[in-house]
Model the fold of this input.
Amino acid sequence: MDDTTAKRGRFTVLPLANGAVYNLVLQQLLEFIEGLESGDRIPSERALSEKFSVSRVSLREALRSLESMGRIEIRRNSGSFVREPLANPMTDYIRRVTPGSEESLNQLVSVRAALEDRVVLILGDGDHDFSHVHAHLLEVESEVADTSPAGSVDVRFEALLARLTNNRLLIEFQRTTHELWIETWGGCGQGPGDRKSLLAEHWGILDALREGDTAAARERMAAHVDRTVA
Done:
């Protein structure tokens, strides 16, 4: 183990709440939205939970994952809308050459760390409106206030930051990585950390960005994503 690896922390890996149900619902939702068009409104949580015969809690977690993947957009008090109905061909290719495993997760960590660091660097160079990201964290804060710790694969925060860069290629590479990240962890029935601790780390990154402290934002993002799986 080299000095760089020795300094990296490890993810706190926790079981996903209702992991088997979550995976099933996520796959059903992915198949469902492939029959829709970009901009189409998705049925309400109540309608979808009845359609798939699952609890709204399990459905909501799967919808968060779809938003993390960039496949849908959840608008507060308006509903959920399709962004990218079709599967990402780049994701399909990588999935074929790198089957999901612990080794794959560690490789994804390296890719994620590089992408998220570049996002922070871009956002540190200029003025950006972080109000939408701030509103998102406030919403997550209200969601997790009364929940018990469970694994999380929610990467919506990072996706929102990437969109502020207006770098389409960077956004697409991140989207591919996030989709593989969610799929691989979900297949294990686990998540790298719980929503409350991840939320605290997200607040720290956002605070540094809003204060214009790029060095601190990079350091906090690295501590957030660049960890070993085992």
In short: The first strand starts at residue 13 and ends at 15. The chain has eleven helices and five strands. The two ends are 13 Å apart (CA to CA).
